[in-house]
Amino acid sequence: MQIFPRELNYLPLALAIVAGGLGAGVFILFWVYFTPPNLQVGYTPKQPVEYSHRLHAGELGLDCRYCHSQVERSHEAMVPPTQTCMGCHAVVRTESEKLAPVRESWETDESIAWIRVHQLPDHAFFNHSAHLRAGVGCASCHGRVDQMEVVGVVEPIAMQWCLECHRNPEPHIRPKSEVTNMKWEADEAWVEQRAMIADVLNPPEHCSGCHR
Length: 212
Ligand code: HEC
Ligand code: HEC
Ligand code: HEC
Ligand code: HEC
Ligand code: HEC
Prior knowledge:
The chain is mainly α and 212 residues long. It contains ten helices and no strands.
């Protein structure tokens, strides 16, 4: 005697498909809502001062290291202190309304509350100096900052993105003297040379390389 009709044999399978679909849906929702904005392409927060990289790094031609002075020595690039701005703005545009928050920070000794643009979660380790030493330029990860009025995230900062380059860094390697040069492009001679340089690089692909 059959207690359950035969069709019910398919019930577990049907349930599994529905649950699978739901699971994926829930997963995508979580992924979209909980990927922090600082890892998403296009995130461009409004800063407390209308500071322009296009003007300072582009038109005025200031080197990135003039302000991000620790980037070659430290794991962090660091945003410059108000003192760096006042080196010029104590004499340039001293009446400018746009610079009022900078002068106020200088007078009160309270740092400007710059909003962090890129930020990895604590469980992921990143080191600027190691990348620059290997000849990876700012532009490979931050894009043409010299053309940006306001800096935003231009690359999808995710594990997959890190790993893609770690598996094949060669196209991103440039002479160390050009790491901050936004306009630099590889010529034929360099394409040959960089293959040999990339050969001896060994970016980590094992978990503990980036999760320490
Ligand atoms: C005159 C000083 C100055 C120079 C020169 C400069 N920067 Fe900046 N940079 C800043 C300040 C101030 C901030 C913080 C405000 C902002 O995000 O715009 C910043 C922020 C950034 C950020 C975003 C940091 C974050 O929070 O994630 C990146 C990336 C960056 N700079 C890259 C560069 C690159 C690349 C160059 C060279 C082409 C450069 N900067 C030159 C002052 C400077
Ligand atoms: C090497 C000199 C130099 C440094 C360092 C410098 N600036 Fe400037 N800044 C200038 C010059 C030059 C101008 C353009 C003035 C003009 O248009 O006549 C300018 C313009 C500005 C303006 C626009 C002012 C206006 O009224 O339009 C802002 C805002 C500004 N800078 C912010 C900053 C901040 C914030 C820093 C520090 C992170 C900084 N600057 C560092 C030279 C500098
Ligand atoms: C290999 C990719 C890569 C390169 C090359 C790179 N950056 Fe970054 N940058 C990042 C990542 C990832 C973060 C976020 C780091 C974090 O949250 O710990 C970041 C953060 C920053 C910040 C925010 C403050 C900080 O130190 O975390 C600044 C400023 C910055 N970068 C400037 C630069 C400059 C200037 C250069 C070139 C001299 C450069 N970066 C080269 C990937 C890169
Ligand atoms: C555009 C290429 C590129 C990207 C993107 C990139 N890396 Fe790297 N990474 C390298 C190269 C090249 C090295 C240097 C390898 C060497 O010196 O042998 C390196 C080295 C490292 C190291 C070892 C340095 C040390 O101090 O031990 C860590 C950790 C690392 N990367 C983490 C990351 C993380 C995390 C990201 C993503 C947020 C990332 N990298 C994105 C190219 C890249
Ligand atoms: C080249 C650097 C790098 C390596 C190697 C790496 N990770 Fe990650 N991982 C990251 C970064 C950066 C993030 C944070 C980015 C994000 O949240 O999307 C991350 C995030 C994660 C997360 C959080 C979930 C997520 O996707 O955000 C897990 C879990 C993880 N990694 C596991 C691993 C395991 C397991 C390995 C070894 C098989 C590994 N990682 C190797 C850089 C790396």
